[in-house]
Structures are given as structure tokens and as C-alpha cells.
Specification:
about 220 residues, alpha/beta, TIM Barrel, eight-stranded parallel β-sheet, 8 helices, globular, binds D-xylitol-5-phosphate, binds zinc ion
Length: about 220
């Protein structure tokens, strides 16, 4: 995947008409970002397995599932069965990230690892080689609509350099505070998959918002 892509985050969508919301971005986006929060790892609760299973019946988009949960290893199989394609967990939430990546792969899914913005990059670097997606958080996980944190760009560039060194084609994704300005900066630093909640579903014209983000992101 070399082209820049947007993964709309349904956290900012209208849950009352979720499938209609998805239909609006479906023609322009391959990935759909799904935030799962447990009220424990993060101070918020969002959606879970039954909603994902239901959405799976309505769309063929790639489900980019972002688990903000403690002990993700206990739930991986259920998320896989529900229809997730990429399953991304936070490295500090499990004792053995390498093993968890392997288990996700054994279930026929693509493992992703996420890094909290307050965590040093050394926590994630040893596991970059195990994952198909590296999710660099640019806000404190738990809520949409926050401001893109300074320092994220260097973190993206560090992962980009490590993937190049390894010869890995894993996707670098960035999550939080993406708008027309930060989209371009994140892509300049090496990100390829931009998660956008508020910047897409917070706008009246969701498809137009995706098009704007894509055009800003590719002006590098
Ligand atoms: C935050 C979530 C994000 C969130 C991003 O914990 O992981 O995916 O939806 O929202 P925006 O794009 O509004 O910052
Ligand atoms: Zn997310």
C-alpha cells in the first residue's frame, strides 16, 4: 500500500444510522476504523463485538479494529470471528506482544500494534517487525475530537526508518486530530493510513471531507 488512504473512524459517526454513515464513505475508502474501549485501559466505553458482527453483514470494507482494552489476548478470537480484518492492540496491554501478533495471524487476521503518545518509542520498536500495521496515536486514547499532539511527527519518522531498515511493508497509521493540515504533515513524516473521526463524520458532507483530506495529504 503506497497511496495515502483515509480510515474513517466511526466513533464520530451517528450510531443511530451507522450503516447509512458508512455508505457515504464506502466508495472512497477501503478501511473503516473501529474503536473499541473498555472503560479500563481508557476512561471511556464505546462499542464492541455485537456491533462489529452486525456491521460485517452490511459492508465489505476492511475492518481496522483498534482495541483500547486491557488483556486483549482474552478477546482476540471473538473479534476475529466478528469479522475484523486488522486487529490492533496497545503493546503495554499484554505481556507478550510478539505472541499476540502470532495468534492474530494464526486466526487469519492481520496484527497491528498501537503506541500511546505518552509511551516511549522503545516500547514498540522491538515488535514493529511482528506487525502488519503500526498505529501511532497522536492524541490520548479514549476520545475523538482532540488536538494532534506535537512530537507525533518524529515518532512516525522513527517507525518509518525502522520499517525501511527491516524491509517491512507494514502500514503506518496515525490516529487522532487528523485534519487538512495535520494530514499532510503526517504523510510527509511517513504515515500512509490516516484515521479521521471528527474530520469526516463531524462534517456534513462525509465524502467531501474524505476527498479534502486526501487532496491535502497528497500535496507533499
Ligand atoms: C481515539 C480514537 C480515535 C478517534 C479519532 O481514542 O482512537 O480513532 O476516533 O478521532 P478524531 O479523528 O476526531 O481525533
Ligand atoms: Zn482509534
Amino acid at each position: 500500500m503506497n497511496d495515502i488512504e483515509i480510515a474513517p473512524s466511526i466513533l464520530s459517526a451517528d450510531f443511530g444510522v451507522l450503516v447509512d454513515e458508512i455508505r457515504q464513505v464506502e466508495p472512497l475508502c477501503r478501511f473503516l476504523h473501529i474503536d473499541v474501549m473498555d472503560g479500563h485501559y481508557v476512561p471511556n466505553i464505546s462499542i464492541g463485538i455485537p456491533v462489529i458482527r452486525t456491521l460485517r453483514k452490511h459492508t465489505d470494507m476492511i475492518f481496522d479494529c483498534h482495541l483500547m482494552i486491557s488483556e486483549p489476548e482474552k478477546f482476540i478470537k471473538r473479534f476475529a470471528d466478528a469479522g475484523c480484518d486488522y486487529i490492533t492492540f496497545h503493546v503495554e496491554c499484554t505481556d507478550d506482544p510478539e505472541r499476540l501478533c502470532r495468534e492474530i495471524r494464526d486466526l487469519g487476521k492481520k496484527p497491528g500494534i498501537a503506541i500511546h503518545p505518552n509511551m516511549p518509542m522503545e516500547k514498540i520498536m522491538p515488535f514493529v517487525r511482528c506487525a502488519d500495521l503500526i498505529l501511532i496515536m497522536s492524541v490520548i486514547p479514549g476520545f475523538g475530537g482532540q488536538k494532534f499532539m506535537e512530537g507525533t511527527l518524529e515518532r512516525i519518522a522513527a517507525v518509518r526508518a525502522e520499517l525501511d531498515r527491516l524491509g517491512s511493508d507494514a502500514i503506518i497509521s496515525v490516529d487522532g486530530g487528523i485534519n487538512n493540515d495535520t494530514a499532510r504533515m503526517a504523510c510527509d513524516a511517513g504515515a500512509r493510513l490516516l484515521v479521521a473521526g471528527n474530520a469526516v463524520f463531524g462534517q456534513e458532507d462525509h465524502a467531501g471531507a474524505v476527498r479534502d483530506l486526501l487532496s491535502c495529504a497528497s500535496q507533499s
